[in-house]
Amino acid sequence: MKNLILIRHAKSSWEAPLRDIDRPLDTRGIHDAHLVSMNCQKYLPKAFLIWSSTASRASETAMIFAQNISYPVENIIFKEELYTFDERELENIVKSCSNHYDNVILFGHNEAITNFVNKFGDIYIDNVPTSGFVSIKFDTENWETLAKGKTEKALFPKHLKESKQT
Question: What average pLDDT does range 107-119 have in this prediction?
């Protein structure tokens, strides 16, 4: 079995005139990344690998999650090729993962994440929001042969904020 958790980077700031790859998280993004990361631990496998896009907003989100789930920040693998908005590129990157690893947490970008989740998961999600967490389990021992999997959990900031109000 292979398990892939896709997390869309938290909300980023458009305040400063920066290149897209350099945009940092905004205040809401930081808050939402903490909120989701503090509530996702029961959905995580015991051992996993973390991959992140090199974009500032994705790497900052990955570091917040790592701190809150007690994963060594220095073990995060930053991959330039994860700075993609194309689900076919994302699929190729995932399929290139070593079969030595059964569980991968990946921090990336939309449209790639939403389209990937809808192609490989069994629950349609209109849009994976910023800080959105989606876990998909695959009945395979080989990342290269990834096919339709089972969406195990979708956890979004909105759901956590609504449950706090009730």
Answer: 98
